[in-house]
């Protein structure tokens, strides 16, 4: 299956009885369909639900600044969320909603086949790294993990959620830590690229 068909399939998903009624639209994901990097956030917020694009509000602006700090734009990566419908009043995703959205995540990753998954915040991290995620994002952020998720090996870098920066009055200390973590992501991408077979030029 191609990603556009998967997006179509989930645009009418009714697995979560509350979310499928409260949502304005499903926010499937956006970016490069064959990127080696997937950014996995928590859930769409108000701006995202209005526009149908993940991370297009205040948190998204910070994410774009962080990507820019390592020479990337949002079009270089694929961005999606742990659940793809906005929870009412931006409440936390429920366990059942995360479970309901799991197969969609597996199928998305299976099509894109990224080398690196950047898990943004606690919810995304716990889905991809169930064991390490228990320690909490502040303990494990910026570390590089190798994990097998549904039979496929991925490099995973958990990072602090940009919303955290907003809650903390855009603290320079937190922002610097976040930038450092994105430097790590850049290194991981570089290491992977240098391991890929090089084309011979004659
Ligand atoms: N926060 C998220 O986790 N995801 C979004 O798409 C927007 C804000």
3D architecture notes:
There is one protein chain. The chain is α/β, with parallel strands linked by helices and about 200 residues long. Helices cover about 45% and strands about 15% of the residues. It has eleven helices and six strands. The chain has helices spanning about 5-10, 20, 45-50, 60-70, 95-100, 100-110, 120-130, 130-135, 135-140, 160-165, 170-195; strands spanning about 30, 35-40, 80, 115-120, 145-150, 150-160. Strands 1-3-2-4-6-5 form a six-stranded mixed β-sheet, sandwiched between helices. It starts with a helix and ends in a 7-residue tail after the last helix. The mean pLDDT is about 95. Bound molecules: uracil.
